[in-house]
Write a structure and sequence with these properties.
This is GTP cyclohydrolase 1. By secondary structure, this protein is of the alpha+beta class. It is built from seven helices and seven strands; from the N terminus they run H-H-E-E-E-E-H-E-H-E-H-E-H-H.
């Protein structure tokens, strides 16, 4: 916590003044919450499966997430759109959102986050195909540095049938 006090001083304020006195403790608690994804294996959420005969696209879109840029410790946030075409098993819809949160609540870059979600679905559910699209705003771009507040970053991870069949990829994208 002394490091946080030193940071407050370095920025030009007094860590002992009334509004900042307990800030180091609050910052520590906040960072433990921001990074709670390290204390779980997000893939485990997907292990609850059901035998349902469904061979078409399952898409959970607009899954809100909040993450921390590993380069600046600045927040980035947005939505994840996660879809897969089942082969033999499906998982609960909330499990997909929990998986997104588990990977997002780590120090991240958006590209890795996108891949980790898709690879977890591939590994655990073994679907015919998986596609993840993430759209996010990065405070390291919007609130500092280049200061482009309207800039959004979109990343994709495409596996299986979505790689080879443009009609399946188009179906996913049209539903967004």
């Amino acid at each position: 916590m002394n490091s946080i006090r030193d940071l407050i001083k370095l920025c030009g304020d007094d860590p002992d003044r009334d509004g900042l006195f307990e800030t180091p403790k609050r910052v520590l608690h906040a960072f433990l919450e921001y990074t709670e994804g390290y204390r779980e294996d997000p893939k485990n959420h997907l292990k609850k499966t059901f035998d349902v005969d469904h061979k078409q696209l399952v898409l959970v879109k607009d899954i809100e997430f909040y993450s921390m840029c590993e380069h600046h410790f600045a927040p980035f946030f947005g939505v994840a759109h996660v879809g897969y075409i089942p082969d033999a098993k499906i998982t609960g819809l909330s499990k997909i959102a929990r998986t997104v949160d588990g990977y997002a609540k780590r120090f991240q870059v958006q590209e890795r986050l996108t891949n980790e979600i898709a690879e977890a679905i591939e590994e655990i559910l073994e679907p015919k195909g998986t596609m993840v699209v993430i759209e996010a705003k990065h405070m390291c771009m919007c609130g500092r540095g280049i200061k482009k507040s309207d800039a959004a970053t979109i990343t994709t991870s495409v596996h299986g049938i979505f790689e080879n069949q443009s009609d399946k990829r188009a179906e996913f994208l049209s539903l967004l």
